[in-house]
Structure formats: C-alpha cells, structure tokens
Specification:
11 helices, 2 domains, 15 strands, 6-stranded parallel beta sheet, alpha/beta, homodimer
Chain lengths: 372, 372
Amino acid sequence: MNSRRNFLQKITASAFGIPVLTAMNERPSGILNEVPYEGPMLKVAILGLGSYGNRVAEAMQSCSMAKVTGVISGTPSKIKDWQAKYNIPDKNCYNYENFDNIKNNPDIDAVYIITPNALHKDQAIRVAKAGKHVICEKPMSINAKDGQEMIDACKKANVKLLVGYRMHFEAKTLEILRMRNAGDFGKVLFFQGLCGFRIGDPNQWRLNKALSGGGAMMDIGIYAVNGSRYMIGEDPIWVTAQETKTDPVKFKEGIDETIQFQFGFPGGAVASCLSTYQMSNLDRFFLNGEKGFAEMQPSTGYGPIKARTNKGELTNPHITHQTTQMDEMAAIILQGKKAPVPVDGEEGLKDLKIIDAIFLAVKTGKKVELKL
Amino acid sequence: MNSRRNFLQKITASAFGIPVLTAMNERPSGILNEVPYEGPMLKVAILGLGSYGNRVAEAMQSCSMAKVTGVISGTPSKIKDWQAKYNIPDKNCYNYENFDNIKNNPDIDAVYIITPNALHKDQAIRVAKAGKHVICEKPMSINAKDGQEMIDACKKANVKLLVGYRMHFEAKTLEILRMRNAGDFGKVLFFQGLCGFRIGDPNQWRLNKALSGGGAMMDIGIYAVNGSRYMIGEDPIWVTAQETKTDPVKFKEGIDETIQFQFGFPGGAVASCLSTYQMSNLDRFFLNGEKGFAEMQPSTGYGPIKARTNKGELTNPHITHQTTQMDEMAAIILQGKKAPVPVDGEEGLKDLKIIDAIFLAVKTGKKVELKL
C-alpha cells in the first residue's frame, strides 16, 4: 500500500522529525508495533459505489492491514472509474447479478456492503453464502428480524459479520470510555445525544421507505441510539419516543423527520436524545456523572471530533475514522482481535431492536420495555 | 439607597473612567435615564427570612427603585438580625399571625413571598386582602388550581401579582431573545434545558411534599419548563414525561428525583428537558434554529451566565439578577412598565399548568395535550 497518501503522510511526519511509526502507534488500540506490519492484508470488495463507498475506499488507501481489491456495482461506468482509481483488475469486478461468484475469487476476503439499508439483508446473506466475511454499513438492516437472519446466515457460513460502527475505534471516544471506566466522572447518570442534519434532495433513497426502512432515525438517529449505549456502558431497559413532522410532503409516511427518544438504564442512568432531518449540523453528545462530565461536539461527524471533560480538552490526534475502522476490522477478521467496543452482528442487532422499540413507542405513545 | 455596595460600584466604575450612568444604562431594559432616578421607591417587605430571602435583600441594597422596608417571619431572632442589617424599625416587623396588619402600614407597598411553595397561596391571598402588591417566588404555588386562586384574589383586591422569574430580566438571556426575534437563528426548532443539582440535607422542606408540592421539578425543573417557553417564544401544546427514582428513601412518594420531559410547540419546534436532584450542577440551555444556535452554561444560576451563539460569545455585563429583577418589578408596579418577558400571575400559572401536565404524563405514561 505505497499509495500517494501514505507517502505524503510519511514525508510530512518526517519533516517535523516525528518517527512515522510512533505517530502511527498513536492509533487508539495500537495495531502496529514498532515494526511495520508485513502480514496478510484483508482483501475487501466494496459493494455499492456511492459517495460513502468512495469515502471508505479513499480512507483505505492509508490502511496497513486492509485494501480495496474488488468492486460490486450495478453501474458499469462507476466500476470503470473505480478500476482506474484503485487499480482493480477486471476479474475482481462484479454486478448485482453475478457477485455470488466471489466465492471462487481468492482476491476477496470480505465484502463491505454500502448500499441502501433495505438491501443489506439479502446482500449480506449472499456474501455469507459465498464464504466471504461481511462488513455491513449501519444500520445493519431495517429491523431486528432481518438483522437476526443476517447473523444466522453468517454463523451458518462460518464467516464474520461486522457492522460499520466507526466511532467504536475513534480515539477521543475511547479516551472518554477509559475515563468513565476509571471512575473519572463518578457514577454515570445522564446521556444526551443530539444527532441531525438538514437533508437535501427529496428524491434520494434515504427518503424512500422501501429502500431506507425509515427516515432520520435509521440514518443519523442511530448514532444517538448506539452512542447512548457505549457512552453509558449499559443497554437500555426502556424507551419512550415522540415524533414531530413539520414537512409531510418531504417526509412521507414511514419516513421520520424528527424523533425525541428517551432511555432508562439498569443502573438508574437516563438518556434524552434527538434524531432529526430538519436541523442543520446537530452533532452533540453529553455524558454527565456524579463527579464529572464529558461533552463532544462534533461527536460523530467525519471531521475531527472535539471533546472536553471536567479534566479539560482531549487532544488525541485525529485519524480518518474509516482508515482506523478498516485496519481494526482487518485485525478482528485476520487475527481474532477484540474490538474496544463490539462491532459484531449482535451489536448491530441491539440497535435494531431499540429502533424497532422507538418506532413502536412512537406509534403506541407508550413506554416500551427492552430486553437486549 | 447610598449603600456601601452602591458606593463601591460607583468608585469602581469611575476608576476605569466609565461614566457611572452609562454603565448603569447597560441594564437590559434601561430603567435609568441619564439622570439618576429620584422618584418614589417600591417599599418591600420580605416574607420568609431564609437563605434566598437574604440573597434578595442583599441584592436590593443596590437597587435604585426598590428597598427592603419590612419583614414578616415566625422567628423573632431572624427578625432582630434583619432589623440590624437593613435598618428596619419595629413597626415594620410582623409575624405569621399578625401580618394582615400591613394593611395600615404606608411603609410597605409590596410583599415578596419567599417561603415553602405550599404556603404561597394563602400568604399571597392575605397580602392581597391587605391591599399590598404580591411578589411571589417561583413556583407561584404547588398547582394550577392554587395559582388561579391567587390571580383571582389579586385581581379582586386590585393589586399586582408578580412571580420571581429573575431570568426574564437577565441581560444575556434577553440578548438571545432579541437575536431570535431578529431571525439570527432562523426558524427555531429545538430547545434543550438540563436543570439539576445534587440536593443535600434529606430533612429540608424541599423534600417534604406537604411543603414543597413536589421534588426537583418544582424547584429546579421549573427553570427548564419556563426556559422552554421564553427561549422558543411559544407555549407548548403537548408534553410527555418519564420519571426515574434511584433513591426512594431520600426521595419519597410525591418527591420527584429525576424527570425527563418533552414538549411540542405549535410552530413545530420541540424541547427535551431534564429536571433532577441527583446530578450536580446541571445548568445548560441549548436553542437550535435553522440557521444558528444559542447555548448557555450556566444558564440560570445566580453567578454570571455564560452564553454563546453562532455569532460568538455574549459579553453583556453581569448584574446581580435579583437587583435587576427588583428594580424592574418596581418599575412595573410603580410606573406600569411592561416586562421584557412577562412575570405576572398568568405567566406563573402557565408553568403550573405545565407542571401539573408533566406529573399527569408521568402517572399515565401518556402524552398530555396542553391549552395554555
């Protein structure tokens, strides 16, 4: 992986007299040792060549343990572009009809599914049946039932199933969890996750229930759902939720615009969250304990996370999230490494169970008990 | 009112070459003109000589239009202390049995009721019947029914009824409302008020339902209730709420420890709030609009408020809240001035109606529609 980006990174680092390997060792869970990694790379095909797929592939240019080796797409022109950009041979290119043939391709260890949510389940099951590991963008699927089927299929095929929770490897996030575990905040009592943005084009798949399975909740609210769990360090035991829709033309039946939701946790902590497609750049986490607090803003965006606690500003360096994620996922798949916060199918399924419960709470107006 | 504090303020201002009157004109709604105020003072008796009563009296030492002229208390030793401190003659001192006699005392224009919540109603009605204006600490009473009786009694007696909403005169708060009205945040869509502290002594009246009428909600949660309304600029049309109790020994039946509550507003905005006696120093407001935001932290504490918006940090100077409040209330009573945000009985009643609805929502687990 002597990509231009890697090369530039090394030059830059050297220019400031910082040993490259030391800098790389600052990654949250330190994949690399003093010696550069020279073991096998995780060979990844990207399924779905949209803008996020492109972001992942770009980020993987800087990976040490994972590389893009194949593509699966329904759009021949996109395949051509990617082949040129990432040096992918014809034999590693597939479309939605023939990608079961990856089964016989030793250039592909895993497939990263980055397609509309409703397609994840069938695609994951096909990848599993082809004997390849599944990495699936969040939400893992559009409901818990589908999520369970994916888990079952991967278990049966004896392949790994990982969900694209990039924040589970983010340095400042992990530092806050370390501090929480060390008791720096005292008993944790409250979490607030405000996640939203103002969505544009009304014709995009994210606003089409058949493809997305829901609106803001599936897309951006899930960060607050998942964040509640890793920030508190427990799974919620109840949920209440309230939906508000100000633009029923843009946000049709089944596409949530704004949902407020609340959790209760076994230890007595509570969470108050907001998921919205109607407010710009809402990206705030706040964790409050008996003795201290942590706040993050932005908390889950792609750019550098900003975080401070009662002890001051966190200074962990920013590394492109998807680079770290893919290196760590490679270590999980190739070396059986344990993720700092789980990213497996069971983890994805928990969020889906909670989202199912949020939708039920909205519909019934009642508190929904959870057993995760 | 040539108190030592006033004197020191003037000296300090002069030392920096700032004309005193200009500095004083920076008060949010500018009571003072270029010429020092020399009209009549509002003569105020304090009913209830506890720590907050003392804070108000202290702050009033710097008032230009209001002064402490009398006291009402059940504790003779407290009365003695106050007489000495504030130079109050014997004829202006009353106890809970005889204070109806203020009727005949020209040294008292108004009574500021600063007693446990459940006592407000009867005391306010007695003050009104004595023909004196009523200033009542928040919450105005323990439920909407009692609040309405207070309003009726004051109307009948033709006296003013004001509620101690000191934030309604606070400079940074008002600057944010000005910016909101000027469209600096665009359409306002979300408010979050997190209000709480860790309450100490389990034997205090605030944890005795018969005196307090409720727990954290009546005491500190009301700031988020009231703040939701003045920050959004509308009254909510529905409320949902969830209670969590981790310490049922300290927080007995009817004394809420932690309540999360949510509002919907006619314009489509929503609010997510927290009221708690279990978390230390939780004092945060966040207002989010289509184009901008305002955040305050601390947002309602006594010390200087800190506030920033998408346009930067607010720099309005801090003036002791209760000083401004009492000068402004004097202007309302003596000059018929309009408050920047209402502080009358109807305003207090709205919060009580909402708190009644929050308790009902907790009890029923259902959304409660509001018509304020």
